[in-house]
Each structure stands twice: as structure tokens, then as C-alpha cells.
Amino acid sequence: MRTYRKKTPKNLKSYGDAKTNSFDSWLVRLSHLAQVGLFVFTLWTIHYTVIPLYQKSLLDEQIAQKELELNRKNKTLENIYKQVRKLSLSQYVMSSGSECTGILLPPNNHTSQKLLEIDIPSCLIKTASEHGALDNLNQIDREVLNKTIAQTSKKITALRGIAIKGIEELKIKAKSHPETLPPPGRYTTSILNILSTSEPPAMLKEQKIKAQIEAETSRITYEYISKSQALILSISHEKWQ
User: Fold this and answer.
1) pLDDT for 42-51, tens place per residue?
2) Number of neighbours of residue 140 by Cβ within 10 angstroms
3) 57-86 mean pLDDT
4) How many whole angstroms separate alpha carbon 147 and alpha carbon 118?
5) Which of 50, 88, 113, 239 is least buried, going by the fewest C-beta atoms within 10 A?
6) Distance between alpha carbon 31 and the CA centroid of its chain, in Å?
């Protein structure tokens, strides 16, 4: 028995092929569109994520370098300022130490009375306000300096009080117990020995007591002045920041 294969019409076969070709074409087009879309998305991602991150990283690196450079310059400026401050303070203490303790007084005024009459605290404040070198100090250091001057002035005032009291007690002791006075120095002793050959004992005793009072008064006064000068000098040795 023969089997006959059913034949497909030519026009139906052509339609099927055309439909398949059209579907394939659309697949190709969609594939191309997907590739284009992926490419666009990749560009968008690079533009809005990768590039900004890279730029930020680069900017952060530049900022860090600038900060290091700025820190180095600030450190250099800080060291220069410290040197200027040290020089300015040294000039001030040398000037005030001479002017405020009587070193610059004429020789005939270098007496205990004249030296004790000097108001060292007021002189320190006055020279600080007039000394041009101190204009180089910043506000914080100027406040520290003013505070240090005030503290130093209190110490010097206390030393002056001790010196004046010591001289007053010396005069009282000379009247009541002259034998307890410190012995005169070599030069004074030599002078008294020379005078002993021509002066009466009573006058010689009076001259000896007077010389002892003057010598001890001078010692007390110059000890006060020396300690005051040391305190003024210590102003420049303050623990500055």
C-alpha cells in the first residue's frame, strides 16, 4: 500500500520562512539594542561612579600633600617666632634689669637709701609697655609675660620689705648691743687701725660702729638688688608654649 506525503503549499511555506526570518531579525536587533544599552549603562556608571571616586581620591591626595606642606611651613614659622620671642624677652630683661635695679644710676647715687627707694615693680611694668621688642609677642605670650611680671613683682616687693626690716633691726641692735654687730671688713679695719693712733677711744668706737652699720646696710641692700636682678632675669626663662 502506498503512502502519500501531504504537500505543503508553496505560499504557506514562504510565509513560515518569512516569519522566522522576521523573528531572527528582531532578535538580532534586540541583541544590538541590549549591547548599546549595556554600553550606555557602562558609560553612565563610569561617569557617575568611577570617575567621581577617582577624582575624589586624587583630590584627597592633593589635600593631604597640601596639609603636609602647610604643617611644614607652620612649623618653620613657629620656630622662627620662638627665636624672635626669646630674643625679645632677653632684650627686655637686660634693659629692665639695668634700669629698674639702679645699675644705671650715677655712682654718687649708689647708696642704700637711693637703691631701696626704687619702685622696681612699677618700673618693670613701665619698661614692658615701652619696650618695642615686646610688640613681637602674640597676645597669649603677652598675657603670660604680664602675669609673670606681676608674680615677680610680688616676690621683689617681699624682698624689699625684708631688706628694710633688716636695716631697721640693725640700727636698733647698734644702739642696744653694738658688740653683736658683724665685724667690719679688711679695708675698714685697716682705716680704724690707722685712726687708733690719733683718735680718742670713744670717737674710734663711734666710728667703728658707724662703719659696721654702713657695711651691713650695704650688704643687705646689695643682696636685695642681686636677688631682684635674678628674679628679673628668670622672666625670660619662663616655660613658654
Assistant:
1) 777 776 776 7
2) 10
3) 88
4) 21
5) 239
6) 73
